[in-house]
Amino acid sequence: MTVTLAQTQTLLASVIFMAFTATVVWLGLALVARITPRACLAMASANAAAAASLALHALRGVLPDALTYWPGDVLSVVSFALLAAAVADITARHLAWQGGAVIVVAVALLLAALPYEGDLRWQSRIVAVGGAGLTLMGGLIARRALLVRRAGQPGTTDRRLHPLLLTLPLFLIALLLAARGVETFINPGSTPDMRVPTVFNLVFLWGAVFLTLLQNATLAFLVLMRLILRIERLLQRDPLTDTLNRRAFDAALAEAHAWLARGRGYALVMIDMDRFKQLNDTLGHAAGDAALRQMVQELRPCVREVDRFGRLGGEEFCLLLPDTDVAGAALLAERMRSNLAEMPFAVNGKTWPLTASFGIAEATLADASA
Questions:
Q1: The pLDDT of residue 156
Q2: Coil, strand or helix at 22
Q3: How far apart are CA 44 and CA 35, in angstroms?
Q4: What is the secondary structure of 277-302 as a DSSP string?
Q5: Sign of the CA dihedral running 209, 211, 212, 213
Q6: Neighbours of 215 (CB within 10 A)
Q7: N or C: which end of the chain has fewer CB within 10 A?
Q8: Residue 176 CA to chain centroid, in angstroms?
């Protein structure tokens, strides 16, 4: 197969252009649309660093070596560190930058200690290993976060997202970089320069074109899904207490009752704050809202991850307990009552005894409906 210099240069220019375009798009999402701005800024920076690194690589021999070789290699690793941080922020809501920063500093110091002379095989290996390690780390963080969220939010949009498919581009990027490192042992003289017209460089650059598009599209999809999940949460939550609203709780209750016929029982705990009208009349409606928030805060430690806690209206709440009988519901209700009674409510220098009445019930097959 004959590979021409024009082919490799065109592909290199294409990757640079796509990375630059992605930078502009991510900046727009961060600064104009204000969608997950921190993660979008990290993705914009990752694409900008990648574009700058590849541009410096293309300008080797045109600009002074001190401006193209070491800075270009370091920027390449920086781009992968920023990519891993952005992926972690999008999927795990945490900008995990410390590990990436350590790897970037280590790579920069190693490259600074090596002379940029000869075939540059070691420089290429260090960059490949650093980039592959960073993208692999980002992929593992993202996969773990997506698996946890998928298991913890049945019935939501996340449930329909397959973690392996969403993180596959990161693993493919790590594989592509690892292949570039291995190639330095097979063909050490030409691989470090992506402009050299070899079959490997042609395949590598085509892979870079494809994965640049795929990775940016995948992360844009994840950002969109995160926005959709936020909207879903707003539609399902009571804005004052962040418990399920009546509609969402009724849906969870209907689902639990459907499982009853398959042998999975459930119990309910009804909660009604005592003297709520008197509290509102005496201390004001703002104090009443604060009391409801505090009550929910005191009760939450008793709620399991599988339970569903909803506000039915006013000062009335209900807790759905899957796989629980009436005795278990009674124990839980007593623990909740005790927690609430031990924490006095104070507002504007005035205290109020914060208590609630609890009722329990266990579903049976004789119940026609929830």
A1: 46
A2: helix
A3: 13
A4: HHHHHHH-HHHHHHHHHHHHHHHGGG
A5: positive
A6: 22
A7: N
A8: 24
- Helices 276-283 & 285-299, crossing angle to 10 degrees? 130
Q: Are 181 and 129 in contact (CB under 8 A)?
A: yes
Tokens read off for 131 = 């980039």
Residue that the structure tokens 């993202």 belong to: 142
3-class DSSP assignment, residue 237: strand
What is the pLDDT, as a whole number, of residue 90? Answer: 86
**What gap in Å lies between CA 224 and CA 35, rounded to an integer?**
8
Averaged pLDDT, groups of 10, the chain, 370 residues long: 87 95 94 88 95 95 93 96 91 84 95 89 93 92 80 50 77 93 79 84 93 90 79 85 92 92 92 92 89 93 92 94 94 93 82 91 90
Residue whose token pair is 């800024």: 41
Strand partners, 270: 318, 359
Report yes or no: 101 and 81 within 8 Å, Cβ to Cβ.
Answer: yes
CB 257 within 8 A of CB 346: no
Q: List Cα–Cα distances, 171 to 131, 299, 349, in angstroms.
A: 11, 42, 58
For residue 39, how many C-alpha atoms fall within 13 Å in the half-sphere facing its CB?
22
Contact 40, 26 (CB under 8 A): yes
| Dist CA 239 CA 141 (whole Å) | 31
